[in-house]
């Protein structure tokens, strides 16, 4: 009897378990056959925002229910229920896998290819980038850096140029007779800029180009001496709250336009804007020569020292004209050989024949083969004994340099440089100056002394046969082959790939960030490569000019930049740059900090950027994620409004974009 009861109880248990299993089977089939969807609220959603519902992560997946039931274990509150092993969802029916969208410049075989896509920016997304992750104070977080907020420098430093205003170093010079005091003498380590250079009282947003060519605010460059000294020569006038620039110069008081017409009439082969695209104006005054060449498609770099007329370059930059503070004294200028199709000197107060003509030999190095030197000065036309002797010395020196005096008319003389070395090699033995050593690198310019020798022209003819403007902008120049690059691919492919990359990137910036609405005029690319960024600005019809900076830590691509018809300069970003404060509207740095952080203090570079950036100006830093936190903190410590944005490659890309705005008025 007892056995029957036990047997009956066992049968009931088995029957109950079977019914329960069937119930679970139909329950699971009902919920997991696609006819129903489990709904969950997102527990990770920010409580300040509206909640949303989402499909169960198990939707459209199949599971072995008995296996799951048998392996179920009880979990303590401290432990979460372990997830089942991930099961890949079945592929969509009748839909082929999407094609691979190539990003970058290498194809699937690792070969450089210019057939790639950069990707478009969605303006609606870009406008909202950075919202929610911007802070107004410097914080410490994971991988963050504590940066003390920088204070303002004294008002006496409003025009401070660190490497040119180093009174202590200049006072220790053994000699200043050759202009050494106007060259670079940077502060020693630990004595550099550690504060924010303030604007002058009453500073206003600069007058936009092209109006700025003819007038600027007095309060932005509050120095009247140049107007007092040169007002009678039609350089510059004061009119109420503005400086006005009539367009004249010491040697062309009737205006730069008439002067340029005269030069082109004297020698039509000059062909401004076609054959002559890049020019250098030495001792430029307020840069009216270069300002009026802009409308003729000529980029002129205007240079002058910070001398008794110390603010002339500041006026030039405030006008929106390419300019740098530079002196031709004892070191090479920071531009490559064969950089300029035309070099101009109008009453520039330089003794070209001193020290065996070493200064004119530097001009010869900078002048492109077949290029022109235009000299407008008293020795050209005045018949006084001293001036006539200076003219004879100049003719004698230029003859030994194999320059051809192609035209002399009125107060203007024009020489042309030879196209090759044949004239140099056919001179009488012992003729001075001699040719430079075959091992001399004419493009080596960083703190290199002037050399009293004639720079050899490349035997391959590199530099002499650049195409006319504007086709030269995108045409790979011959000197591209002389650039030392660590690459197995063609340099021309690198050149074309960089050009296409920046063309599409800048096109995206124009569409998404409305760059054409920005009042961009003076732009600096702090790590320029082949100049693709500057070329893209031109192709997108942005009315600005770009100074392409090539860091000394990388390959010297300056010859290619000038051959494209662009402007550039060599620089070491561990040191300050030779320009006045508040001179650039936009600073662009691509991959600069991740490279230079091993050599330079990043705060030093950022403080220098703040010094040369105009109030209201912008900074775009495209760099590695690894440096973004520190750059953000430094930017905030300087009072910039900073935002980190994703590139078109998405939030998980190794690069980010840091956009910064410098407020017009600092608190």
Shape: globular
Instruction: State the total count of DSSP E strands.
Output: 19
User: What would you call the structural class?
Assistant: alpha/beta
The value of Rg in angstroms is 34 Å
Cα(first) to Cα(last) distance is 99 Å
In the sheet with the most strands, the strands line up as: 8-7-6-9-10-12-11
Membrane topology: Single-pass type II membrane protein
GO cellular component, one term: endosome
Family: Belongs to the methyltransferase superfamily.
Pfam family, one: Methyltransf_29
Your description of this structure?
It is a single chain. 27% of the residues lie in helices and 16% in strands. The protein has helices spanning 2-32, 65-70, 123-128, 167-171, 225-230, 256-266, 288-293, 312-319, 354-366, 378-381, 385-400, 422-425, 491-513, 532-539, 558-563, 592-596, 602-612, 625-637; strands at residues 39-41, 53-55, 215-217, 237-239, 242-244, 278-282, 299-304, 323-325, 340-346, 367-376, 404-409, 412-416, 522-525, 545-551, 567-571, 584-590, 613-624, 641-646, 655-661. The strands form four sheets. A seven-stranded mixed sheet has the order 8-7-6-9-10-12-11, sandwiched between helices. Strands 15-14-13-16-17-19-18 form a seven-stranded mixed sheet, sandwiched between helices. It is globular and about 140 Å long. GO terms for molecular function: methyltransferase activity. This is Methyltransferase.
């Amino acid at each position: 009897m007892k056995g029957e009861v036990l047997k009956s109880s066992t049968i009931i248990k088995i029957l109950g378990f079977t019914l329960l299993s069937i119930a679970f089977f139909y329950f699971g089939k009902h919920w997991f056959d696609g006819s129903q969807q489990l709904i969950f609220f997102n527990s990770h959603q920010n409580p300040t925002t509206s909640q949303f519902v989402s499909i169960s992560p198990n939707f459209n997946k199949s599971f072995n229910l008995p296996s799951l039931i048998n392996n179920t274990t009880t979990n303590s509150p401290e432990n979460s229920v372990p997830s089942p092993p991930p099961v890949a969802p079945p592929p969509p029916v009748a839909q082929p896998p999407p094609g691979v969208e190539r990003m970058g410049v290498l194809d699937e075989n690792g070969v450089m290819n210019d057939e790639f896509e950069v990707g478009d920016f969605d303006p609606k997304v870009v406008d909202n980038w950075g919202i929610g992750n911007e802070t107004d104070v410097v914080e410490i977080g994971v991988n963050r850096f504590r940066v003390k907020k920088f204070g303002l420098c004294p008002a006496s430093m409003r025009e401070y140029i660190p490497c040119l205003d180093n009174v202590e170093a200049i006072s220790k010079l053994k000699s200043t007779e050759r202009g050494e005091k106007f060259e670079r003498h940077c502060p020693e380590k630990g004595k550099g800029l550690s504060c924010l250079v303030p604007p002058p009282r009453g500073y206003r947003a600069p007058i936009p180009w092209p109006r700025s060519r003819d007038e600027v605010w007095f309060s932005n460059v509050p120095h009247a001496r140049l107007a007092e000294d040169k007002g009678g020569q039609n350089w510059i006038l004061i009119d109420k709250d503005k400086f006005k620039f009539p367009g004249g110069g010491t040697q062309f008081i009737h205006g730069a336009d008439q002067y340029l017409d005269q030069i082109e009439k004297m020698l039509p082969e000059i062909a401004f804007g076609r054959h002559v695209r890049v020019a250098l104006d030495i001792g430029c005054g307020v840069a009216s020569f270069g300002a009026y060449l802009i409308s003729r498609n000529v980029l002129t770099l205007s240079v002058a020292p910070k001398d008794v007329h110390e603010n002339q370059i500041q006026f030039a930059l405030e006008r929106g004209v390419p300019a740098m503070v530079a002196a031709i004294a004892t070191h090479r200028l920071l531009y490559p050989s064969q950089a300029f199709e035309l070099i101009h000197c109008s009453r520039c107060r330089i003794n070209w024949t001193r020290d065996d003509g070493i200064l004119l030999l530097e001009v010869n190095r900078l002048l492109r083969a077949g290029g022109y030197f235009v000299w407008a000065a008293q020795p050209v036309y005045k018949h006084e004994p001293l001036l006539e002797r200076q003219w004879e010395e100049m003719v004698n020196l230029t003859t030994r340099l194999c320059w051809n005096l192609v035209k002399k008319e009125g107060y203007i003389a024009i020489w042309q440089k030879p196209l090759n070395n044949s004239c140099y090699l056919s001179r009488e033995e012992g003729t001075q100056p001699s040719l430079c050593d075959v091992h001399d690198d004419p493009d080596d310019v960083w703190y290199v002394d002037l050399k009293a020798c004639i720079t050899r022209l490349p035997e391959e003819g590199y530099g002499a046969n650049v195409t006319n403007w504007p086709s030269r902008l995108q045409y790979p120049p011959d000197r591209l082959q002389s650039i030392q690059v660590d690459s197995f691919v063609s340099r021309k492919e690198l050149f074309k790939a960089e050009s296409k990359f920046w063309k599409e990137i800048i096109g995206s910036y124009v569409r998404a960030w409305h760059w054409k609405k920005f009042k961009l005029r003076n732009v600096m690319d702090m790590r320029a490569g082949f100049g693709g960024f500057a070329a893209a600005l031109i192709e997108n019809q942005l009315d600005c000019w770009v100074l392409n900076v090539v860091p000394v830590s990388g390959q010297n691509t300056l010859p290619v930049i000038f051959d494209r018809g662009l402007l550039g300069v060599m620089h070491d970003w561990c040191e300050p740059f030779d320009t006045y404060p508040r001179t650039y509207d936009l600073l662009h740095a691509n991959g600069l900090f991740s490279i230079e952080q091993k050599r330079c203090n990043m705060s030093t570079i950022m403080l220098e950027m703040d010094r040369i950036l105009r109030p209201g100006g912008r900074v775009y830093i495209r760099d590695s994620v690894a440096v973004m936190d520190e750059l953000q903190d430094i930017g905030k410590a300087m009072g910039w409004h900073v935002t980190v944005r994703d590139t078109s490659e998405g939030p998980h890309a190794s690069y980010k974009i840091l956009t910064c705005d410098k407020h017009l008025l600092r608190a």
